[in-house]
Amino acid sequence: METLTKWLKRAHHTVVMTGAGMSTESGLPDFRSNKGLWKHKDPIALASTEALQYNREDFFHFYQSRIQALEEVEPNSGHKTLAAWEKQGIIQSIITQNVDGLHQRAGSKKVAELHGSITSLRCNDCGHVVSSEAYLTEQTTCPKCHGFFRPNVVLFGEMLPEHAIVFADRHTRAADLFIVLGSSLSVAPASTFPAQAKEHGAKLAIVNRTETDLDALADLIIRDRNIGDVLKEMDQHL
Asked: Which residues bind NAD(+) (predicted)?
């Protein structure tokens, strides 16, 4: 922790990348662990362009349950520490694989949501946007064109949003410190950003409970610690 804190103090441009492990500490499930969402469910059947087109009832109920779960959680101490660091100028941006909006609820502003956000819905036909609360009241039909409301997330089979990629790429290239929190780094293209940061001379630190696909590139690895506890301990020494 002392080493990472020292790097953070000295860095001019720090980028933090977060994965599902960031939000499990708020009580949300991850995807690929033994208790993850995909352990007993087929993501293609529930969260893909095919499901959106051909399996809308299961698609709707899957995302309705996720939106309901989000109503019952709050940003954790790790989210709040990152928001405070952004406000203080200690970190310059967050790149997240999460769709839960917890970084923004904690107060973070400079966030690239690589996989979109489940906090809003958009009409699959005309693009009209409404709050995700519409799913909780069984509203799936757009009042403007009668199209189908779908979550504003990236489904399997879709491209990542260009604005998020451009934001993430710009900050990654500028980074002299890149910190990964709670990601196995197994999903591309999100997993390419830490490697890109290393190529441009940044130090790479990974905080994750299990091994990641990029451990061999890391300058520092912290395992078996809660992210919130790690950030709190660092914050006390900044």
From this structure: 20, 24, 31-32, 97, 99-100, 115, 183-184, 208, 227
